[in-house]
Amino acid sequence: MRLHRAAATVALTAAAAGLAWLLFAGLPRWYSAPAGGDALVSPGGQVSSVRKINARLFYVSDDGTKLTSVEHDVPYGEGTVEQAKAILSAQIAPAAEPLLSAIPPGTTLRALFVTAAGEAYVDLSRELTAAHPGGSLNELLTIYTLVDALTVNLPAISSVQLLVDGKEVDTVAGHVDVRRPLLKNLDWIQ
Amino acid sequence: MNDRSFSAFSQIVSAAAVLGIAVIIVVRLAGQGGVPVILLAREGRRTLPVTSINNQEFVALDDLAAAFQLAVREESGAITVAYRASTIVLTPDQALASVSGRLISLPAPPTRAGGRWLVPLDFLSRALAPIYDTRLDFRRASRLLVIGDLRVPSLAVRYEALINAARVTIAATPPAASSITQDEGRLTIKFDADALDVALPAVQPQGLVQAIRSVDAVTLALDVGPRYSGFRSSSQTTGNTTRLVIDFAGPATDTAAPALPPPLPPADLPLFGQPVSAIRTIAIDPGHGGEDQGTAGAGGLTEKELTLAVARRLKAVIEGRLGVRVLLTRDEDRRVPLDERTAVANNNKADLFISLHANASMRPAASGASIYVAAFDESARASARRAPERVTVFGGGLRDIELVLWDLAQIRHVDHSIEFARILEQEFGDRVPLGPGPLERAPFRVLESANMPAVMVEMGYLTNAAQEKQLADANFQNAFVQAVYDAVLKFRDYLMAQGVER
User: Fold this and answer.
1) Per-residue model confidence as pLDDT tens digits over B65-80
2) N- or C-end of chain B: fewer Cβ atoms within 10 A?
3) Domain shared by A24 and A55, yes or no
4) B447 in Cβ contact with B409 (< 8 Å)
5) Which of A177, A184, A187, A190 is the best residue to mutate to test the B interface, defined by the most B CB atoms within 10 Å of its own CB?
6) What is the pLDDT of residue A15?
7) Which of A140, A162, A169, A175 is the best substitution to test chain B (most B C-beta atoms within 10 A)?
8) Domains of chain B with bracketed CATH
């Protein structure tokens, strides 16, 4: 009898401990996992619990005359502006081999906002123009990398106005008119 | 003549002048008979009368209704033209029409004269053609409206008088075969076609060839003078054009020929009665310059050096052989803002703008030339489509002035720019290697405000080591220049066949 009571106490304690673990550790971890349910593994092999979305980013094609789209996980952003910032930050980050980015190295995102009409104003650092290698094709690929990264992934953004160091510029490298917001253009995507 | 009689005389002269001006104004306002348009269909020809009012050509809507089975209705201030399930809605006083719901512009609003509604001649190609179930092709030079798929090649005819010889060149686009027969005092050229779209040049009658005229719908006659002794002809089809060259010889030279050829007329002073060339000034824009070197090759060749070197060669060849004025937007190593480059072309009323550049790619393998024409997205087109502004003109009355934003002046020339780009692509052929997708549209700043046909040519990639060497080579530069020169010639023929003259 005493033995039964002791066994019941142990079983109850274990059940309570299990329930407590489920409530305080298991469920939160379960809910914070990405929508797909798979934990993401970072390059270091650690399990990450940051929420991600899948986006199409653009890189120079193998023949060097077009852009090619590559699917990437980028951090989830709350609302269009935050999501646009996350996509653009991923797009202008240095690309890992064999990908080749059309964005000049060192370019950073200074600010980004979106008007009610769906025009995204993207303010980039001066490296966008100062470190540009030149050539009209390179310039077209640089510009449509930025325009398409936002317009292809975010339906709420219909056009992109580029700014450099907070100011409007005529061109990035002497050819393409960027005085007006540019619409999505898939002609430069392979 | 004393003071009083002088005063009376001057009053009479003034009164007569006022009366004369009044008569002219009345005649102009009432409209004058213009050169009619010929409607050309498989079933035959018919004439469409044209009325000229204030230098604008109009056709009557009820004439069009009869010829094209249109129903014309006037209700609540609008004129509705219906054809099968489609409609065109016109509003008096508005130089616009809604064609199946799409807005198009017209050079003038519909106008009422003699109890009939008249619409500008361009109504045929801009409003009627899009809704008509058979192809309508208006050939302005010959005033033909081709209905349906008829073979109506457009002929560009050129006559050159030389010492004791003459040459007639006839370029037919699309290609058309022809046969030449020699009769008493003339050569007859019969084309294998349904009709000809041709504006014939006037010829000074004292030469070897005394007149060029149409005999029937598909035949031309060249009347030869007493000094004519024989002819030789050759025909060659390249691309979309057949070029027929007929050389006329004079008598064997027993008299001393003049030592020098007759001087060519200055480019700005065409012979009286001859059509003026469609291209008299060309602007060539060597890209970059000064501290803006553009792109550069590993071997050290910079874009700014290359573009200036090729532009100078091109200027020398075009000016030397074609006798047209060629302007360079820079002729030294200095930075020129993009707006200033286009302003040079616009202010000098250039007929063609060619911007020269060299390309760069992040991948060194990319190579070949590309030709770009300006691209405009919907927002740019919307800003360019401003309604015409109505202004008061001297002597009373109103006139619609079409306003186009200077920044977007290229919009109205894009079709001709594309045609020149196509001709260039064809002429590059095997002379200038082309890249993948050699003809592209892009919103290039230097092209957008050019108020004439304009292209940007990327000659090749400086980032490709082999191509950098090629671009630096004088033989290649000469081949490139020759190809552009040939394209300019063909484009000039194309413009003249379209009836574009200066």
Assistant:
1) 989 989 999 888 889 9
2) N
3) no
4) no
5) A177
6) 65
7) A175
8) 33-147 (3.30.457.10), 154-249 (2.60.40.3500), 281-497 (3.40.630.40)
